[in-house]
Specification:
This protein is an alpha/beta fold. The protein has helices at 10-25, 29-36, 59-63, 150-166, 187-201, 220-231, 257-276, 292-303, 326-334, 355-358, 377-382, 398-406, 414-417, 420-434, 440-463, 481-500; strands at residues 40-50, 53-56, 79-81, 87-89, 101-102, 105-108, 112-117, 120-132, 138-145, 173-179, 210-214, 284-288, 307-313, 316-319, 351-352, 365-368, 387-389, 410-412. Helix 1 runs parallel beside helix 4 (150-166) and helix 7 crosses helix 8 (292-303). The protein starts with 9 loop residues before the first helix and ends with a helix. It binds nicotinamide-adenine-dinucleotide.
């Protein structure tokens, strides 16, 4: 717990809740040591060959190369646009094309004048932190993002240990990924990178060892690459489908998994609204992040009659007081091939506002569903909502938490609020083991029961209101909801150590 440069790391910060809860339950000192740091911190490097790119010339540079004749590239998919304005030049561009290249410059009508930048080998830093496996195989997402670090992955891996215990699924906690901006690489490069990651990490993965899932910057397609690489050449490879979850339903994924995290967020919000005697019909909601979690939560809440009044993402913010047309927004973000960054920016039927103003929009519920540490003390001061439902992992800082509590804004902590994803991942894993395929209605019925029951236990612990299911977890005094959730997790985890003992 040493502060670095006088500033605590994200991990140290996040572990404050752990220590508070451990003190409250009088946790066995050896169990505390086991949980205080991860079991394993894997850091490794992966290399790939990158393709040549077309980099747009500045207006000034372009003015000097007017003599380059326009080229005609026939193969429609030969030039793959990237979010940074570059194009990946696939070799099939040469097929049946009429190309002129002068001093490395190419002129492509309707696209622009570009310099050809040679591809070549690139190296990326990769991580997998396996935090704890006392309750079951390591489990957690794979993140492809430019701002990742050992400290961040340690925090997220520990969160998975708490979350799997809270959701009562027989898994431990892990997290990992690659430091990369995936929007600036072609699909093929991302595929190669993923295959290489699994190639290097394979001996530490497996359906009973460590089971990745999608997280920020990854999706079902990437899970398919991981499964293929892991099972390739294995004699009984169908038995190994459970090595990753979040797969496409056509290749062993579960019905309902794509929307499970957003669905879980909504189940928790429903319970909160029921307790508060509020109706979701007509409720006003703001959402940060319109990726997997944010857009699913938006669609489901919209279906329940709520109004999504503002959405912020990394590239922009939109606002419409009467409620945004969610189906049209999903179309704009996720089904429009020209929207390379998958952003809400540029959506026509809502006004563009600043991120600062987003936090001030008056609403009943705010769902942070992007990255961590967004709701700082400052942001919490500005919020005009009744509830923060944490779709993202770690969106609220310690300061943010303090201010929300002072202002009596309720919080549904991430470890229960976004646990729908890992819960349905467990159902997917079970279906893979049994070679079964469950209906979406079955999946959601189980998910709803599991989350609502555990959410209820957390609220009982928070209010010190012992009931049949919660009696074993109450600590004789009221605590904040985040601490209550951690108490539930730690008691369930500690039981394994106390009952099974330690291998020496
Ligand atoms: P995603 O990559 O599909 O979407 C991320 C969204 O966040 C995008 O809309 C992006 O524009 C936005 N974003 C990124 N940086 C931002 C910033 N600085 N400010 C505002 N918006 C920003 O990711 P996802 O799978 O939806 O995950 C979102 C969050 O939910 C993450 O914290 C993730 O760890 C957590 N989570 C995801 C799952 C899952 O099943 N996918 C499960 C549990 C928790």
């Amino acid at each position: 717990m040493t502060p670095r440069n006088g500033r605590k790391s994200i991990y140290d910060d996040a572990m404050e809740t752990f220590h508070r809860a451990a003190d409250l339950i009088g946790m066995n000192p050896r169990v505390r040591l086991e949980l205080e740091e991860p079991d394993f911190e894997h850091i490794f490097y992966v290399t790939i060959e990158t393709r040549d790119r077309l980099v747009p010339l500045t207006a000034e540079e372009a003015a000097q190369v007017r003599d380059v004749r326009p080229s005609s590239v026939k193969a429609a998919d030969a030039l793959e646009p990237l979010a940074n304005g570059h194009f990946v030049l696939h070799r099939r561009a040469l097929l049946e094309s009429d190309i002129e290249l002068r001093r490395g410059v190419i002129n492509i009508p309707q696209k622009g004048i570009f310099r050809v930048q040679k591809g070549g080998p690139r190296k990326f830093k990769a991580y997998r932190i396996q935090h704890n496996q006392v309750r079951g195989p390591y489990k957690g997402g794979i993140r492809f993002h430019k701002d990742v670090s050992l400290d961040l992955f340690k925090t997220l891996a520990a969160d998975m240990t708490w979350k799997t215990a809270i959701a009562e699924v027989p898994f431990g906690g892990a997290k990992g990924g690659i430091k990369i901006d995936p929007f600036n690489y072609s699909r093929e490069e991302i595929e190669h990178l993923t295959l290489r990651y699994v190639y290097k990490f394979k001996k530490f993965m497996g359906p009973f060892l460590d089971i990745p899932a999608p997280d920020v910057g990854t999706n079902g397609e990437i899970m398919a690459y991981m499964m293929r690489q892991f099972t390739d050449g294995e004699r009984e490879h169908h038995k190994l489908r459970g090595v990753v979850t979040g797969k496409d339903v056509r290749i062993g994924g579960s019905e309902g998994r794509l929307k499970a995290t957003g669905q879980g967020v909504v189940y928790c919000i429903e319970e909160w609204a029921r307790e508060r005697g509020l109706a979701l019909k007509g409720a006003r909601v703001t959402i940060q992040g319109f990726g997997n979690v944010g857009s699913s939560a938006a669609e489901i809440l919209h279906g329940l009659g709520a109004r999504i009044v503002a959405v912020n993402d990394v590239n922009g913010t939109i606002h419409r007081d009467e409620g945004i047309d969610v189906a049209a927004l999903v179309q704009h973000v996720h089904h429009n091939p020209a929207n390379l960054r998958r952003t809400v920016a540029g959506f026509r039927d809502a006004a563009a506002i600043s991120k600062d103003d987003f936090w001030r929009v008056e609403a009943d519920i705010c769902i942070p569903a992007a990255l961590g540490e967004e709701i700082t003390g400052d942001v919490a001061e500005r919020l005009r909502v009744k509830l923060v439902a944490e779709g993202a992992n770690g969106p609220t800082t310690r300061d943010g938490d303090r201010v929300l509590a002072e202002r009596r804004i309720d919080v549904i902590p991430d470890v229960i609020c976004n646990a729908g994803g890992v819960t349905v991942s467990y159902y997917e894993w079970l279906q893979n083991q049994r070679l079964e395929h469950w209906s979406e209605a079955d999946v959601n019925a189980r998910l709803s029961l599991a989350l609502k029951k555990n959410f209820g236990i957390i609220m009982d612990v928070a209010r010190d209101r012992p009931q049949r299911d919660s009696r074993a977890y109450c600590v004789g005094r009221a605590v904040d909801v985040r601490t209550a959730a951690m108490i539930l997790a730690l008691k369930r985890i500690e039981a394994h150590y106390l009952l099974e003992g330690f291998s020496q």
